[in-house]
Amino acid sequence: MESTVLLLNGPNLNLLGERDPAQYGSTTLADIEARVGELGEELGVSVVCAQSNHEGTMIDRVHEARAYQGILCNPGAFAHYSYALRDAVSAAGVPYVEVHISNVYAREEFRHTSVIAPVAAGYIAGCGVIGYELGLRALMRRIAERA
Ligand code: DQA
Question: Please, what's the b/e burial string for 19-37 (b: 16 or more CB within 10 A of its CB; e: otherwise)?
Fold first, then answer.
């Protein structure tokens, strides 16, 4: 069976390319989704892309991903306080790899904590947008380990 994974981006990440380029660079979300999709083709996995600015919609997407093999997610600021998203990830029962483009540890203290990281299969921060590609590779390894 070919695997499918969800690439999920959270609030404000639709503005990548315009938003705070010093932190996030000039790559757009469409560019990131295209690149992760291409890498998925190379690795033999279908990548379903979604972005939402709404916590409940993010949770719905995570629930849908129970039908997939894994989740690659940049939850944006929800990482720092959304226990509801963490519970959804925990309930999804598929490996979840979290990506942050910026080095959250070099920024404001509230960004130093991810409440979702304890239930993640992997966590990547501060590598720029390459973190999504690294994250997909790590996620595929985690999926293979379960098979
Ligand atoms: C981010 C880091 C978060 O603190 C911030 O709220 C974002 C983007 C990142 O990719 O570096 O929206 O997740």
Answer: eeeeebbebebeebbebbb
